[in-house]
Amino acid sequence: MTFFEQMLLGHFIGDYILQNKWMAYRKGTNYLPCLTHCLLYTLAVCSFSPFNIWWVLVVFLSHFFIDKFSLANKWLKLINGRSLTDFLAFGHMEISDNLMQANKENYRILRGSFTGIVYTAVDNTMHILLMVLGAYYLRLL
Predict the structure, then answer these.
(1) How far is the C-alpha of 110 from the C-alpha of 66, rounded, in Å?
(2) Distance from CA of residue 103 to its chain's centroid?
(3) Helix/strand/coil for 1
(4) DSSP helix, strand, coil percent of the chain (3-state; round to 5)
(5) CA–CA separation, 14 vs 85, rounded Å?
(6) b vs e for 24-62, b when ≥16 Cβ sit within 10 Å of the residue's Cβ?
(7) At what angle do helices 101-137 and 3-12 cross, to 10 degrees?
């Protein structure tokens, strides 16, 4: 398995399998859930790759910075994209009155689902990009 494949496997395990709802919902507003998630994430990524203290720091610090400050959501707001926090706060949509209520609810569900997918894609891209840049700088790739 290549270093990139090891990193990717650790990323998916750390960000999806080891992250619970408490961490996911609170990591942007509270340090303890964010630190807990980032420690587990770093453990997952680094357990699949050769040990290097600088690599451990790159993985932990890049993940902490992205998650604690919700950089994926900030990016989506910057480009006028679909913001997950905006959808969660203001999930209702103003749709013309001639649509049936069921259609409004279906649209809201579809919009929320798509927003979650876009947010996840942006978040994953940021994490992987920073790790690849860090690994390249450390000459691990």
Answers:
(1) 26
(2) 30
(3) coil
(4) 75, 0, 25
(5) 22
(6) eeebeeeeebbbbbbebbbbbbbebbeeeeebeebbbeb
(7) 140
The one-letter amino acid at 133: L
Domain positions in the chain are 3-137
Task: State pLDDT tens for residues 59-104.
Answer: 999 999 999 999 998 888 888 777 776 666 665 555 455 555 556 6
pTM of the model: 0.83
What is each CA distance from 55 to 16, 64, 93, 128, in whole angstroms? 21, 14, 44, 13
Distance CA 79, CA 91 (A): 19
Cα–Cα distance for residue pair 24/13, rounded to 1 Å: 14
Tokens of 135: 């690994």
Question: Count of CB atoms within 10 A of residue 119's CB?
Answer: 21
Residue 108 CA to chain centroid, in angstroms?
22
Residue 95 neighbours by CB distance under 10 Å: 13
8 A C-beta contact, residue 135 and residue 141 = yes
